[in-house]
Prior knowledge:
The complex is a heterodimer. Chain A is mainly α. Chain A is 71% helix and 1% strand. Chain A has helices at residues 2-35, 45-55, 66-85, 101-121, 125-156, 161-169, 177-193, 212-215, 221-246, 258-285, 294-317; one strand at residues 58-61. In chain A, helix 1 packs across helix 3 (66-85) and helix 7 (177-193) packs antiparallel against helix 9 (221-246). By secondary structure, chain B is mostly helical. Helices cover 68% and strands 4% of the residues of chain B. Chain B is globular. Chains A and B meet through strand 1, helix 3, helix 4, helix 5 and helix 9 of A and helix 15, helix 16, helix 17, helix 21 and strand 3 of B.
Amino acid sequence: xxxxxxxxxxxxxxxxxxxxxxxxxxxxxxxxxxxxxxxxxxxxxxxxxxxxxxxxxxxxxxxxxxxxxxxxxxxxxxxxxxxxxxxxxxxxxxxxxxxxxxxxxxxxxxxxxxxxxxxxxxxxxxxxxxxxxxxxxxxxxxxxxxxxxxxxxxxxxxxxxxxxxxxxxxxxxxxxxxxxxxxxxxxxxxxxxxxxxxxxxxxxxxxxxxxxxxxxxxxxxxxxxxxxxxxxxxxxxxxxxxxxxxxxxxxxxxxxxxxxxxxxxxxxxxxxxxxxxxxxxxxxxxxxxxxxxxxxxxxxxxxxxxxxxxxxxxxxxx
Amino acid sequence: xxxxxxxxxxxxxxxxxxxxxxxxxxxxxxxxxxxxxxxxxxxxxxxxxxxxxxxxxxxxxxxxxxxxxxxxxxxxxxxxxxxxxxxxxxxxxxxxxxxxxxxxxxxxxxxxxxxxxxxxxxxxxxxxxxxxxxxxxxxxxxxxxxxxxxxxxxxxxxxxxxxxxxxxxxxxxxxxxxxxxxxxxxxxxxxxxxxxxxxxxxxxxxxxxxxxxxxxxxxxxxxxxxxxxxxxxxxxxxxxxxxxxxxxxxxxxxxxxxxxxxxxxxxxxxxxxxxxxxxxxxxxxxxxxxxxxxxxxxxxxxxxxxxxxxxxxxxxxxxxxxxxxxxxxxxxxxxxxxxxxxxxxxxxxxxxxxxxxxxxxxxxxxxxxxxxxxxxxxxxxxxxxxxxxxxxxxxxxxxxxxxxxxxxxxxxxxxxxxxxxxxxxxxxxxxxxxxxxxxxxxxxxxxxxxxxxxxxxxxxxxxxxxxxxxxxxxxxxxxxxxxxxxxxxxxxxxxxxxxxxxxxxxxxxxxxxxxxxxxxxxxxxxxxxxxxxxxxxxxxxxxxxxxxxxxxxxxxxxxxxxxxxxxxxxxxxxxxxxxxxxxxxxxxxxxxxxxxxxxxxxxxxxxxxxxxxxxxxxxxxxxxxxxxxxxxxxxxxxxxxxxxxxxxxxxxxxxxxxxxxxxxxxxxxxxxxxxx
Lengths: 318, 676
């Protein structure tokens, strides 16, 4: 009986992230449009886009291989699994123990690996340019991410997200400079990983400035839908991650009953909305940077992570 | 009931068998069936040795050893051999690598233009590696080590007429001699004035810190040069690719591990308790090696050289983990030390799997296209579907991505890194996260590097006629690759079994162990405790499979299944010429620009003809191997210069020679007089 309810809650979480992800992206787009004094498309537009893409036929390049056709599903599945493992409205879900933060990041790495390969598959220069830049950004983001993990593990004594969230939700954390630095580092990494401004522009139509979009240029129909959906999920995942580590407000502890789950879910939606609004605000206020500025941007994230760690050491020993 | 034969005698008889095959190979060398006979028997003996060592390792008795002495070698010493948990683990690595390489050789060997240059040395090489691991006194160890170097040198020189191979063999020989010299001095210092070369006596003796420091430096020079630590790695990317591909796999996947074994045996076992300043050195070298190795690989466009450079990266990862283990051990943190040490050993095993697999794949590409240069390949996924599938598995595994095995050892290593706040030394507290970041960078760059290697070689459109007409390789080669790919997946989804099998070693060497993983539910692994961190490769794989199948099912059931083939879109600017694709060098450009300006003084020169001139514009990339240019070239130049000066002494008249002899005699007598 307990197992069944466990599976039910875990399944609810997997469905919840799936349902909310397009809405979040639609909301961010809407806010950005309003900030630019445009009316903008409805917040439900991403759902419509996905459905439209799913109904269309796939136009496949002549020399596309099986890898090209498998990649959309593999990346989508890897990102979905990763998103299901990050606590959203409740901690301690059944499969939270499957992977810790490092493994979740690595799962996203698997998704990126296949996507970058797919970019090379057809043999167009746009795919190549996208893949090569994407892996460069990933190579820079990874060390910064590790130092963030290090900093968090130092505070919470764990890399298991449920444990971290429970620890952060307890009152004995207090306000720490290191945590602030770690949060900024994580946000910077998240911007880079999700191909947001200032690292990449998700809305651009100038191919040479694109990174992620250039890589998936050859995709169409249901394959493109899977990749877009994966991107929506990834944005949701990173926001959930930031929320669960730094803002575990009202997050339900496992096994506390349906009411606290409902409160947790409500709080989660509020958090997503706030984060989405801030993201849109930030993206409207900044310009995209040149590709070869990205190393400095992510280098700053790395330094913040390192500095946060060192400050923790110092504060511990005195 | 089988009569109780001592395990070490069993292993030694396998070695004797391998040596016998080597002799047989000399006799058979010109016959047609030689390839099948030699590789077949080598495969059988390797499997026997593998079974024996697996049985010993999984028997799982801590502190169990098995000794034997043969009446050969130095007359007053004899040759001592010993089997313990550590040795049995490395025997597993050696013989598993040997077995799959022999299987691969059954098919690949038929394409060899000069089999008589490979066949005798191949079993001999395996025999020597076995003996190095089994040796229990310094003399046998060094002798076998040197024979191992010579056998592999002969294999490197198998295709001695190909451009560059002679230089590769020469550099290898010089570096191998240098390494052996360092080892000789290290064992000399360990044996001390009493001069007892048995490992048991060395282990029992107390070593002064002075000796320990020198031995560490000498081991880093000796074992490090064989393993490929930066800056002693220069021979590796020359020599490994020059050998036939199954031998490259052995050299990269296995011989470097024998060097790691030597390092572990001396530093952790013979020398006793490590000190923390020593761990700083090992950690630092490991981190630098990992990052530099993979950056070199990223710049490379020769497939086998890229793999050789990536071996350097993995050796860096292993040494960094060993450095961590030393640091924890020095401070008495047994659990953390066992964790870091297990990560290192796990990575040894993993690297032997996927690097052999990738070298086999490169060999398959080489057989069917005759090309190692990635810029001439492309589109092989259509023509070699099975090879490209297994190589993809190898690429994912080596890029440390779940659910494959490379990720598990990296994950364990990062867990060990996260234990570093427990260390009391400030230098280490600050250094370990920095090294951790370097290793994360190396892991991400490895993924980038293998996207490049796989994408340029197997994906896209063929860049040459050879790539266009490639054919799938033979069944023996394929089965060897499939076995390794399966092992990569198995070690990735059932890591708990491997960790438990490694625990007798950590008990032996460090006196501590990781928690028993078999007790964790659902085949999870948890290095310290589940609330701290846990990972379950099996569940991750099952989840991904289920999610992907669900997505496929729903889409194909409820949405469109229509599919149409057409020309590539490419924003409407698709040029059908294969030269317009991204190449290995263009793929590396962003990373070259970010890291290469510092690491290689990389510079792009655009040569644009003046207006009206119809010559094409050219892009020239300037790269400098700073280690070669800054360290090895000055030494080589100094040697050349001094030998040129000394050369004059060979052309003197007899009168001058006599006066030289007289002058020397007088000088020596004078020195003697003044001395006393």
